[in-house]
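Notes, p. 3: input format for complexes.
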Amino acid sequence: MTRRRIAILISGRGSNMTSLIEAARAPDFPGEIALVLSNRPGVAGLARAQEAGIATLAIDHKVFSRREGFEEELDHALRDHAIDIICLAGFMRVLTPWFVERWTGRMINIHPSLLPLFRGVHTHQRALAEGVLVHGCTVHFVVPELDAGPIIAQAAVPVVPGDTEETLAARVLAQEHIIYPQALRMICDGHARLEGDRTVFAKGWNAGGALRSPA
Ligand code: GRF
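Output follows (215 residues plus 5-O-phosphono-beta-D-ribofuranosylamine):
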């Protein structure tokens, strides 16, 4: 088995990064975390990655006068480390079409909502404001349009009376930590791949169940 070389891009605490690092420790995981890269030096996620023995790099976007300059540096670093697949995990920089197109089909992101609902920020607050009863998270391929790429995996959670942004975020985050490693595994072993503007899956589905809230 050829293990794909994965870079995780972060900007903060890196809890999703940690779930990916832990999953990739499994001997049968079809990828290895070869690099954790942050656009913010000194964030907690970098220290966590170092503790886990992963190579880390900080490329401070503030040093660059143009977005393209930052992305060229990023691209060089990824190629220097012979990266095959990029996982965005709380990476808070919008990437230009130039960069996204260089990594088409090889860059994925986790978003804290059931896309296409609630693209962008403050997803939990907006879900509560809309009164939805089911919320969740999505792993998707990255395309130039923000939070709009073909979906690879989703998990749904109930929204319950008394929920706050924090309680709902925590319920969703627990699911993020499950589906992101699953989706990455599917990308690495070819069970899910991008074809045109759709995700194509190699395996069949058990379509017998349903998620209901209230249950
Ligand atoms: C997560 O909610 C993720 O969905 C979003 O940013 C947050 C990152 O959290 N893209 P963490 O740094 O992985 O803990």
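The mean pLDDT is 97.
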